Amino acid sequence: MREALAQAAFELFTERGYEQTTVDDIVARAGVGRRSFFRYFPSKEDAVFPDHDRCLDDMTAFLKANPGDDPVAAVCDAARIVLRMYTANPDFSVQRYRLTREVPGLRTYELSVVRRYERALAGYLRRRFADAPDGSLRAEVIAAAVVAAHNNGLRSWLRSGGEEDPEAEVDRALSFVRDVWADAANGDGVGPSGSGTGVLRKGVGDGADGEVIVMVAPRNAPMWRVIQSIESTLSEN
Amino acid sequence: MREALAQAAFELFTERGYEQTTVDDIVARAGVGRRSFFRYFPSKEDAVFPDHDRCLDDMTAFLKANPGDDPVAAVCDAARIVLRMYTANPDFSVQRYRLTREVPGLRTYELSVVRRYERALAGYLRRRFADAPDGSLRAEVIAAAVVAAHNNGLRSWLRSGGEEDPEAEVDRALSFVRDVWADAANGDGVGPSGSGTGVLRKGVGDGADGEVIVMVAPRNAPMWRVIQSIESTLSEN
């Protein structure tokens, strides 16, 4: 029933336009009564985004279950749950993206949905950073950065009409955030498990790929200077 | 006239509640006709936030005039224009903050205002990063981070009832973002002036602080692994 209503609503929105379609039109098309509509959707806008509530629940459950030795990685993975909701139905997602661009009321609704995801991510990070200096600030900034990166990748896929590889787009965008925040997430600059070293040493030990970089830096250099130096060395060669 | 209408509207919203106040109530209190209201404000929500349009114009003009040898600093300064709008009238800002918390329609309106600021900042950064790889992604993520940091500082001041030092709160929050993004803002890994490498070499060359770290990694190691390894090394010693 819920799906039939969402389906009918979307057909009518694309046929006649969003503003021109009433709830009465939708229930007539779906062959149900008006009260059934409001049992499933508080408003016409909600019928355009029928899966966000479930997706938000999934995200919350995922974060709750996450042991979280790497909180920034965890919120990036949580953001990917939203991506999968979009990619589960590419045609619908692309059409809805086009519809949303045209209807100011839907854009506003979408903003409030995005904000709810952001708050869920920030809430998780706030708990994880409870003991860090400026934990709440870190949590909110990182959540906003993750959401912005995810949406940049998602939009790029939607604008392509669903042609590009959505996972690759979003992975690239999220890596950008992860790389930058891997350091800043922890106030003291100490990483969670040190597992990176093992991987790196393995790379050197078995001689795979051959090339290595050797980096010399003052111990007290801020992390961004170190990164800048590494990137600069890589781009010189 | 515009100010008198905003004043009347706000008095009524706090006296009777937002939902219980009509545009007719507002024009009666201000002693003007109904059409005057809509000449200045498209909706009741707009009367609650009468200065955002002007503030957005100021921000746009500021960014346009900014020579911008440091784009991240420029958007942080642009965000401070919003702070100054709030601090210009602390009592009103604090009362409005409380009202907005209570009225879902105002929260939604505020989200769309925040989004407009974010778009202005992102648009500026996108132009500044036009030649950088992933310039659009960088622009959107940094704009979102700056807005989140600004709002964290601003909210902290508003929640205190306007008691704390708002400039200090927001400066601290924006510094957090600036420190992290100072490096990432430039796609090629070379800072605005290439100063990062210079600082590191200087640190080694003159023997200041003595200690150095030497890091070996496969050339193709992802940046987050490299960072993790450095952090792990630092924490071991």
Automatic annotation (TrEMBL), chains A, B:
<dbReference type="InterPro" id="IPR009057">
    <property type="entry name" value="Homeodomain-like_sf"/>
</dbReference>
<dbReference type="GO" id="GO:0003700">
    <property type="term" value="F:DNA-binding transcription factor activity"/>
</dbReference>
<dbReference type="Pfam" id="PF17754">
    <property type="entry name" value="TetR_C_14"/>
</dbReference>
<dbReference type="InterPro" id="IPR050109">
    <property type="entry name" value="HTH-type_TetR-like_transc_reg"/>
</dbReference>
<keyword id="KW-0238">DNA-binding</keyword>
<dbReference type="InterPro" id="IPR023772">
    <property type="entry name" value="DNA-bd_HTH_TetR-type_CS"/>
</dbReference>
<protein>
    <submittedName>
        <fullName>TetR family transcriptional regulator</fullName>
    </submittedName>
</protein>
<feature type="DNA-binding region" description="H-T-H motif">
    <location>
        <begin position="22"/>
        <end position="41"/>
    </location>
</feature>
<feature type="domain" description="HTH tetR-type">
    <location>
        <begin position="1"/>
        <end position="59"/>
    </location>
</feature>
<dbReference type="GO" id="GO:0000976">
    <property type="term" value="F:transcription cis-regulatory region binding"/>
</dbReference>
<dbReference type="Pfam" id="PF00440">
    <property type="entry name" value="TetR_N"/>
</dbReference>
<dbReference type="InterPro" id="IPR001647">
    <property type="entry name" value="HTH_TetR"/>
</dbReference>
<dbReference type="InterPro" id="IPR041347">
    <property type="entry name" value="MftR_C"/>
</dbReference>
